[in-house]
């Protein structure tokens, strides 16, 4: 029987610490999660212009892959998630920090967070795993809980990107092979085009500053109650810092290599060879770590991983 609610799916995927890490970034490895977490944390901090005193919220914080890397860079970090198991893992990974609040969500609402209380908010790899009604409700909640002048970073899958389309086709083909008398997986990957994603944000009451769209992900930075001068200032800042925020087409190609390995379409050895031909860029190193990690975790499937 297909799970019919978000919590059941994500609790099942996070029964222990390593399972939770696998669910958040496909790694199943503390070392890889720290590497991908640090990379994503830098991107988020730049997108929302994170300051040392900021109160920041992560919607769908999972195992605190990103939060663990941001908690020392802000005044207060709050992580909320639909899955009690994820929140337990996040708590263990954040032990020793006293500027942290963790909350289990009961429904698509941030009712435990006061209105106008947050300087910043973000959500990574979460809004793509829910129905559009829930995506919109959460954007409305971000609009409610941000202070005037606050900023948020949110993302979902980009259907209009060539790799985004290929990712969507994995979902289409999976459903095509599935039992159609069952409901679809509630946590399946869902996709938008940039105009649709921006429309939800605008109708939720947020000012859309930018939607980066050159990769399989739509990366949107929004603000609350920004006057024209501040909007222009933030747009200029985001344009200047684009290379630190926007995923590149190369990042999309690397991601495709990773999902080909995950879905069994290619052997990690072949993917790593293709990565070698992509040069020495930091994102290539990040995906090399991820793909090597996938190989190390499953020697029965792929054979013994290389020594080095
Ligand atoms: C792929 S993980 C990403 C976790 C984290 N943001 C990261 O990037 O490491 C998706 C997370 O979203 C949470 N989630 C899924 N559906 C949700 C919902 N409807 N409301 C709140 N959290 C949800 C899951 O429990 C899971 O922790």
From TrEMBL:
Coiled coil: none annotated. One of its GO terms (molecular function) is methyltransferase activity. InterPro entries: Methyltransf_25 (IPR041698), Methyltransf_Superfamily (IPR050508), SAM-dependent_MTases_sf (IPR029063). PANTHER family: METHYLTRANSFERASE, N6-ADENOSINE-METHYLTRANSFERASE TMT1A. This is Uncharacterized protein. It comes from Wenzhouxiangella marina.
């Amino acid at each position: 029987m297909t799970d019919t609610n978000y919590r059941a799916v994500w609790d099942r995927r996070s029964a222990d610490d390593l399972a939770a890490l696998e669910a958040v970034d496909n790694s199943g490895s503390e070392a890889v999660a720290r590497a991908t977490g640090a990379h994503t944390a830098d991107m988020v901090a730049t997108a929302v212009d994170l300051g040392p005193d900021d109160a920041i919220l992560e919607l769908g914080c999972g195992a605190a892959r990103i939060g663990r890397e941001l908690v020392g860079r802000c005044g207060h970090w709050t992580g909320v998630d639909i899955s009690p198991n994820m929140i337990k893992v996040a708590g263990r990974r954040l032990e020793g920090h006293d500027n942290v609040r963790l909350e289990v969500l009961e429904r698509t609402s941030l009712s435990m967070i006061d209105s106008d209380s947050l300087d910043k908010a973000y959500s990574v790899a979460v809004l793509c795993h829910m129905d559009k009604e829930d995506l919109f409700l959460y954007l409305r909640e971000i609009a409610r809980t941000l202070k005037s002048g606050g900023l948020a970073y949110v993302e979902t899958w980009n259907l209009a990107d060539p790799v985004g389309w290929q990712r969507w086709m994995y979902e289409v083909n999976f459903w095509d092979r599935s039992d159609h008398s069952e409901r679809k997986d509630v946590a399946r990957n869902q996709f938008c085009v940039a105009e649709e994603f921006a429309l939800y944000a605008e109708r939720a009451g947020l000012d859309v500053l930018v939607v980066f769209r050159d990769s399989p992900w739509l990366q949107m930075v929004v603000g609350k109650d920004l006057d024209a001068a501040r909007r222009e200032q933030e747009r200029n800042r985001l344009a200047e810092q684009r290379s630190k925020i926007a995923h590149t087409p190369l990042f999309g190609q690397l991601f495709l290599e990773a999902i080909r390995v995950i879905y069994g379409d290619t052997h990690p050895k072949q993917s790593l060879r293709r990565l070698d031909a992509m040069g020495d860029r930091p994102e290539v190193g990040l995906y090399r770590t991820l793909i090597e990690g996938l190989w190390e975790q499953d020697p029965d499937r792929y054979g013994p991983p290389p020594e080095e």
